[in-house]
């Protein structure tokens, strides 16, 4: 089975679940918890869950994909929608090689067995996992960081607030925040190096007007070019980064103003142009959104005051930190989980 021409590549964070078709490749960093994949060999559809625990101690009215048992329930729902049955799927199970590895393997294996799912692979270790839905292959790339370094907040957090036209590129000790209306922000994250950046642009482009050799972060195409320069300085390439996009909300409840739409359209074009891996988007609607990007984990979230945004998911967060301000000029896949991701 050949790699599809129009490949949808998604990065899955811990606590997320995705069901996709044959055009999908999913990546996830196995640095905590575990991952199971379920694949239908004939239909070439499947799902992946990056869970933290086998099940919850107390019941809840909402399903949480961070629990393997509830992620499996979500999988059952998607299987039913696809007119398939659990026993038609091949399961593979991977758990982080930590203190809870044996319990995770046993607990989740029992859950899959109860649903009559054939478990083909069991793996203990760490690494960057890749699931190709078009052929069902699941493979590990490189060694992942220890659990203590994978997605855990640092002792000292440097907090950066971006104003319009600003951008910032930082390391795993950094949190970046901004407030968006019709403006748009990109977050770019390197899962292996745990570095990344964010910009806040106001207009898609300055068009034919010359910038005299100086790039201006107020314009979307130039803001991304500024970040690309930093990416190259780090010895990395754009396709190694997961990109998420936020903003493009209308601040007036009236029609006929197309700036937000132009900003959103430009954002999607820029992701395709630079070859970033698509991680998710939270775009449109009426109102503003506060965006928080934690570079140590790659999580990017929006706390919204919107009507009808185009969001994969929404979440807010509070954490005490040391703050300072720096001024420097999904298609046919169903995704669930905390954070705007994938």
Quick overview:
The protein has 342 residues and is an alpha+beta fold.
Describe what this molecule looks like in 3D.
By secondary structure, this protein is of the alpha+beta class. The chain has two domains: 8-149, 60s Ribosomal Protein L30, Chain: A, CATH 3.30.1330; 158-337, 60s Ribosomal Protein L30, Chain: A (2-Layer Sandwich), CATH 3.30.1330.200. It is built from four helices and 21 strands. The strands form four sheets. Strands 7-6-4-5-2-21 form a six-stranded mixed sheet, with helices on one face. It has a six-stranded mixed sheet with strand order 11-14-13-15-16-19, covered by helices on one side.
Radius of gyration: 20 Å
Proportion of strand residues: 35-45%
Structural class: alpha+beta
Widest sheet: strand ordering: 7-6-4-5-2-21
Low-confidence stretches: 142-150, 306-342
The helix/strand order is EEEEEHEHEEEEEEEEHEHEEEEEE
CATH class of the largest domain: Alpha Beta
Average pLDDT: 80
Number of strands: 21
| Count of the domains | 2
CATH architecture call of the largest domain? 2-Layer Sandwich
The largest β sheet comes out as: 6 strands, mixed
């Amino acid at each position: 089975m050949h790699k599809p021409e129009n490949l949808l590549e998604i990065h899955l964070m811990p606590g997320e679940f995705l069901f996709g078709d044959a055009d999908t490749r999913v990546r996830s960093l196995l640095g905590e918890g575990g991952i199971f994949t379920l694949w239908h060999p004939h239909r070439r559809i499947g799902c992946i869950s990056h869970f933290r625990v086998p099940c919850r101690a107390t019941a809840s009215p909402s399903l949480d994909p961070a629990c393997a048992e509830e992620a499996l329930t979500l999988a059952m729902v998607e299987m039913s929608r696809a007119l398939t049955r659990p026993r038609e799927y091949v399961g593979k199970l991977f758990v982080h090689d930590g203190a809870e590895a044996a319990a995770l393997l046993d607990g989740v294996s029992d859950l899959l067995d109860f649903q009559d799912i054939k478990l083909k692979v069991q793996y203990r270790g760490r690494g960057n996992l890749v699931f190709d839905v078009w052929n069902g292959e699941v493979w590990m790339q490189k060694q992942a960081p220890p659990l203590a370094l994978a997605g855990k907040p640092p002792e000292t957090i440097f907090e950066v607030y971006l104003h319009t036209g600003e951008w910032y590129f930082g390391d795993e000790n950094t949190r970046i925040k901004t407030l968006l209306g019709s403006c748009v922000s990109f977050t770019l994250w390197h899962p292996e190096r745990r570095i990344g950046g964010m910009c806040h642009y106001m207009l898609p482009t300055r068009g034919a007007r010359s910038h005299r050799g100086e790039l201006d972060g107020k314009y979307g195409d130039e803001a991304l070019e500024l970040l690309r320069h930093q990416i190259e300085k780090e010895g990395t390439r754009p396709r190694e980064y997961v990109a998420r996009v936020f903003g493009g909300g209308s601040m007036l409840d009236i029609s006929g103003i197309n700036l937000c739409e132009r900003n959103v359209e430009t954002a999607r074009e820029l992701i395709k142009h630079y070859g970033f891996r698509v991680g998710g988007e939270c775009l449109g609607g009426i109102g503003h959104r506060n965006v928080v990007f934690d570079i140590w984990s790659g999580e990017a979230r929006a706390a919204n005051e919107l009507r009808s945004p185009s969001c994969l998911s929404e979440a807010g967060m509070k954490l005490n930190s040391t703050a300072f301000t720096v001024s420097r000029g999904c298609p046919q896949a169903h995704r669930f989980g905390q954070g705007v991701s994938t």
